[in-house]
Amino acid sequence: MAEGDRRPDLAAMLGGLMRRLMAAEAPVLEEHGLSMWGYVVLSALDDGPVRTQAALARAIGADKTRIIGTLDKLQDAGLISREPDPADRRVRVLAITAEGRARRRSAQKQIQAHEDELLAGLSDEDRAAFLRAARALGE
């Protein structure tokens, strides 16, 4: 790479953006009575029930022992259910409740409204390219 072609590492470039996004999300999540991990769990369950806590932990990139407290809080708040699997009573199927779905979607709507304000500084073409790239690299 030539001297003039140097660029910061991706983590350095995206770190400031991530801090800015998380700082904007924090009050929205608090307003909705959600932690960041709670929001992540509800988002994963909004796609459909998950058969085990271990499967959920893998899906969201968390240690299964780390999310137990989050699951307890979400269940106590009526945002998720953990029901015995009819095929194997030792297993708990995790699902989002109607209240959990409504709360998550309301929070997401506010979060994405802020993101839209942030992305408004980009041309339509750059915005579409950025969103495509973020989706592709995030998978």
Automatic annotation (TrEMBL):
<dbReference type="InterPro" id="IPR039422">
    <property type="entry name" value="MarR/SlyA-like"/>
</dbReference>
<dbReference type="GO" id="GO:0003700">
    <property type="term" value="F:DNA-binding transcription factor activity"/>
</dbReference>
<dbReference type="Pfam" id="PF12802">
    <property type="entry name" value="MarR_2"/>
</dbReference>
<dbReference type="InterPro" id="IPR036390">
    <property type="entry name" value="WH_DNA-bd_sf"/>
</dbReference>
<feature type="domain" description="HTH marR-type">
    <location>
        <begin position="7"/>
        <end position="139"/>
    </location>
</feature>
<dbReference type="GO" id="GO:0006950">
    <property type="term" value="P:response to stress"/>
</dbReference>
<protein>
    <submittedName>
        <fullName>MarR family transcriptional regulator</fullName>
    </submittedName>
</protein>
<dbReference type="InterPro" id="IPR036388">
    <property type="entry name" value="WH-like_DNA-bd_sf"/>
</dbReference>
<dbReference type="InterPro" id="IPR000835">
    <property type="entry name" value="HTH_MarR-typ"/>
</dbReference>
